[in-house]
Amino acid sequence: MKYKIVGLLCIILTISPSYSQSDDFNVGNKCVSNRKSSSDFNINNERIVKAIIFDIGNVLVKVDLNLWQDGFNKIGVNIPKNMLQNNKLSELVYSYTEGKINTSTFVSRFSNALGVEEIPENEFKMAWNFVILSLHLDAIENLQKFRNSGYKIYALSDNNHMHSEYIDELYQQIYPDKSFFDLFDKVFLSQEIGFRKTSDEAWLYLLKDQKLKPEECLFVDDMLINITRAKKLGLHVFHYETGSDMSKVLETIQAINLKSI
């Protein structure tokens, strides 16, 4: 009888297509599995993606650069409609964005480039920040969820100090005594690191600073030029459409992690 049972067991194992010795095996009365469950991906060292890098403009904050002209009109100053297509003005803007000049110098040189008397700094800030419309609160709320899931959260942005200060003011109107930038493990502004996102140096700076590999990061941005740059350097990317569901970022990460099984 003993040999019949063994023989029957062998037959069952042989004809069962779902059985894989590398997946499951019996020890006593317990079934031991080598397969990873979905919960295993909550452990950082099991993940491919360990960090999420966010752009700020039109991802977490709604921005319309076409409103610059309206903003300056409100203080009685005329500027070209497509300001960044004006070589002299765009050069100043990029110098400011990359931290080559401070705010006071930027305001002075910008006024001079327009051929007007120096614009008072408080009026200039109002006009300059007119392009910032609101915070994307749904997207912002997801940042904390990502952090609670164990992901490192970073910002890499070409935002300048005037815009950053105004964004923080808007945030504190909703969440008093808190800072917008506390949502991140670290913030990398082009004005502080000296490189804009369109350069490889900005990415290499962040990766080196945080001791990250490109394949361990997912970058979220609304602009394809930035997405393309990050992808060429080996980062995973998510092209975010303004106002869309930020929870899809997590679905993308889960899909990437599953490919590693």
SSE topology:
Layout: H1 2-15, E1 24-27, E2 30-33, E3 51-54, E4 61-63, H2 68-73, H3 87-97, H4 103-114, H5 121-128, E5 132-135, H6 137-148, E6 152-157, H7 161-174, E7 186-189, H8 190-193, H9 200-210, E8 217-221, H10 224-232, E9 236-239, H11 248-258
Parallel strand pairs: 3-6, 3-8, 6-7, 8-9
Antiparallel strand pairs: 1-2, 4-5
Would you kindly provide a written description of the structure presented here, covering whatever features stand out?
The protein has 261 residues and is an alpha/beta fold. The protein folds into three domains: 2-34, no CATH class; 44-60 and 136-258, 3-Layer(aba) Sandwich (Rossmann fold), CATH 3.40.50.1000; 65-131. Helix content is 43%, strand content 15%. It has eleven helices and nine strands. It has helices spanning 2-15, 68-73, 87-97, 103-114, 121-128, 137-148, 161-174, 190-193, 200-210, 224-232, 248-258; strands spanning 24-27, 30-33, 51-54, 61-63, 132-135, 152-157, 186-189, 217-221, 236-239. A hairpin with a 2-residue loop joins strand 1 and strand 2. Helix 3 (87-97) packs antiparallel against helix 4 (103-114). The two termini are 42 Å apart. Mean pLDDT is 84; it is low at 1-44.
